[in-house]
Amino acid sequence: MLSQQLVFPSPRFAGDDGLLAVGGDLSTERLLLAYRNGIFPWYDEESPILWWSPNPRMAFRPGEVHCSHSLRKWIRQRRYNVTMDRAFSDVIRACAAIPRKGPGAGTWILPEMIEAYTRLHDLGYAHSVEVWSGDQLAGGMYGVSLGRCFFGESMFSACPNASKVAMVAADRQWRRWGFKMFDAQLHTPHLERMGGSAMPRGEYLDLLKQWGCEPDRTGAWQFEPSCLEEI
Fold first, then answer.
1. Could you give phi then psi for residue 182, rounded to 5 degrees?
2. Total domains, the chain
3. Is residue 178 in a domain?
4. What number is the average pLDDT over the span 25-44?
5. 54, 188 Cβ separation under 8 angstroms
6. What sign does the CA torsion over 175, 180, 186, 191 have?
7. Are 194 and 57 in contact (CB under 8 A)?
8. Is 73 a member of any domain?
9. Using CA atoms, how far apart are residues 138 and 80, in angstroms rounded to an integer?
10. DSSP alpha helices (H): ranges in 78-200?
């Protein structure tokens, strides 16, 4: 059980299921410490705060997000526009409202989680990617950025292919910015089809130690549409 002290056990000692610690809070300081050490909170309304460091870890390297021929065609047709940090609150609330199956099922994006990540966003550490169909928010994703890493938290699609467009667009933008890793946390068949690979926890933590200490790209992000011209 975590105390009020800002400290976590080593993530290398997490259980086979990835569970590392219980308790604590969602303060900005604790969340940033967690992410810098490869740990994230994930729990539901019936549980205390649970902290995880899975083994293996689902991750993408720059340029690894797969863009299929059909998705490439979809993007070239310019059915959607992409922005970053224009509607963080709308994206996180849409992610919370979408029914899910499998890992992450249920209402795990609780009001206190929304509040905590909104604080991170206001400080320039949490970011959103928005996909628009006209003036309608068609899909998107949000997560935390530290060093040259982005830690994806959740995504949603209200229109066909919108979350895939968000992933591809963000991947191309991060590559342009010199990012080294997109941490997708947990394995899902969808992420595997999109090009993610299961990385041993030890390898992931070693890479995080190297890339997470790079200067943070804080502040509001702005998507460069020319990234999608490379598709």
1. -110, 110
2. 1
3. yes
4. 97
5. no
6. positive
7. no
8. yes
9. 8
10. 88-97, 111-122, 162-177, 189-193
**Per-residue confidence (pLDDT) for residue 100, from 0 to 100:** 57
**Quick check: is 190 in a domain?**
yes
Residue 225 has pLDDT above 70, yes or no: yes
Residue 39: pLDDT band with limits 50, 70, 90: very high
Which residues are CB-contacts of 181 (< 8 A; sequence separation ≥ 6)? 59, 60, 61, 62, 148, 149, 150, 207, 208, 211
Q: Which two tokens stand for residue 7?
A: 């400290």
For the chain, what is the radius of gyration of the CA atoms?
17
Q: Is 193 strand, coil or helix?
A: helix
Query: Is the pLDDT reported for residue 9 higher than 70?
Result: yes
Task: Give, to the nearest 10 degrees, the angle between helix 88-97 and helix 111-122.
Answer: 160
CATH code of the domain covering residue 76 = 3.40.630.70
pLDDT band at 62; cut points 50, 70, 90:
confident
What is the residue range of 140's domain? 58-198+214-230
